Amino acid sequence: MRTRLLVRTLTRLALLLALAVASAGCHSGVISLHGIEGTDGGAVGDAIADAGPSAEHFFTTQVQPTLETRCGGCHGAARSAPDFLRPDPDVRTALLAYPALIDLTSPRTSRILTKGDHSGPALATAEADAVRTWIELEAAEGTMVTPVERELATTPVEIHEGFNQLPLDVIGLPATSLHFVAARVGDGMFLDSVQLSTGPMGAVLAHPVFVAWIEGVPHPDPVDRFAGLMLEVDPNSSASFDTGTVVLTDMPAGALLSVHFTIASPMTTPTMPGVDGGVPMPPPSSGCSQLAAFRTSAVPSLRTYCTRCHGGGNPSATGSMDMSDIGATADATAMLGCNQILGRISATAPSTSGLFTQPDPAGGSTHAFHFGTSRELDTFRTSLLTWFEMEAP
Question: Is the overall model pTM greater than 0.90, yes or no?
Answer without folding.
Answer: no
